[in-house]
Task: inverse folding
């Protein structure tokens, strides 16, 4: 039973537009959520996080929204840039262990 | 600064062989962990450590051993390699676990034939 799901394997957007990546989870015990970005042949790098006590966190072009009642979070990238093209992983954590989704490949077209 | 260093980058093993994947970090992080990533899938936690001398199992620990004798190093041992262990392995560290973000190495791509 997959506890963290990213239902869209891929997303393509035009440069300058908004990218919205979605993530659903089933375990209500998760108390923190993170997004990581991964380029080919590299390890994931941390992008942005949010605690379960908040519903929004913003860092520059990146905003994460958390809807606890729906067990859903989303990552908004505005404006999208070609360098944002990568695989994005959603992760949810509790007691020091993070569970990852399968990732969404974002392609930003110039 | 090196961050998290994994060696080797690539490895091919025959079924039944054993080997150790090395992981070292120079950030004085207490928490270290090993993940595997299979094609089209997310990262699954194999083992983790919250400090020297302390290790625990993650989601997929079978077939792997770990030890943490120093803060810096967290090797992953494959006892008897199987084709199902063909994967990309990532080591990660963070200052104290919990909600502190993970710093990942660049991975070891392992093929078991």
Result:
């Amino acid at each position: 039973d997959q506890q963290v799901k990213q239902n869209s394997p891929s997303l393509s957007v035009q440069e300058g537009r908004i990218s919205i990546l979605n993530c659903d989870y089933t375990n209500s015990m998760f108390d923190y959520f993170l997004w990581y970005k991964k380029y080919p042949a590299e390890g994931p790098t941390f992008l942005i996080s949010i605690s379960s006590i908040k519903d929004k966190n913003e860092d520059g072009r990146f905003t994460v929204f958390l809807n606890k009642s729906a067990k859903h979070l989303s990552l908004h990238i505005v404006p999208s840039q070609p360098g944002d093209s990568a695989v994005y992983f959603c992760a949810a954590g509790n007691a020091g262990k993070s569970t990852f989704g399968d990732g969404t490949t974002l392609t930003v077209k110039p | 600064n090196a961050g998290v260093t994994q060696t080797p980058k690539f490895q091919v093993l025959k079924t039944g062989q054993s080997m150790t994947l090395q992981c070292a970090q120079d950030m004085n992080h207490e928490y270290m962990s090993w993940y595997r990533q299979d094609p089209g899938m997310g990262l699954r936690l194999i083992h983790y450590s919250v400090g020297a001398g302390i290790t625990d199992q993650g989601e997929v620990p079978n077939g792997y051993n770990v030890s943490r004798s120093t803060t810096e190093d967290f090797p992953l041992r494959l006892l008897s390699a199987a084709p199902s262990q063909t994967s990309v392995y990532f080591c990660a560290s963070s200052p104290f676990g919990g909600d502190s973000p993970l710093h990942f190495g660049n991975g070891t791509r392992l093929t078991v034939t």
User: Anything to note?
Assistant: The mean pLDDT of chain B is 95.
